[in-house]
Amino acid sequence: MTVEITDGNFDEMVLQSDKPVIIDLWAEWCGPCRIIGPIINEISEEYKDKIVAGKLDVDSNPDIPGKYGIRNIPTVLFFKNGEIADKQVGAVPKASIVKKLEALL
Question: Is 30 a catalytic residue?
Fold first, then answer.
């Protein structure tokens, strides 16, 4: 199950996590985000004991995208030990995201 990541809980949910974290940065109006959203949901179920999977609405939470220089959505950020380990920009097949995730496990 994905969790809602916000500007307010980012440090606790992402930077302090003892598991790898993937975050889907999205917006309601973003067409390609509708492709990535279900993929992140599937991955969150398949890896539920190994990772934290979250979604961050960039319109409601502008601080984190600004901090990490996110200019395009959808963007999936991969964190390990509180640091960005990888990034995927745009709508891509599930296999591309899983490959980057597997590298963190």
Answer: yes
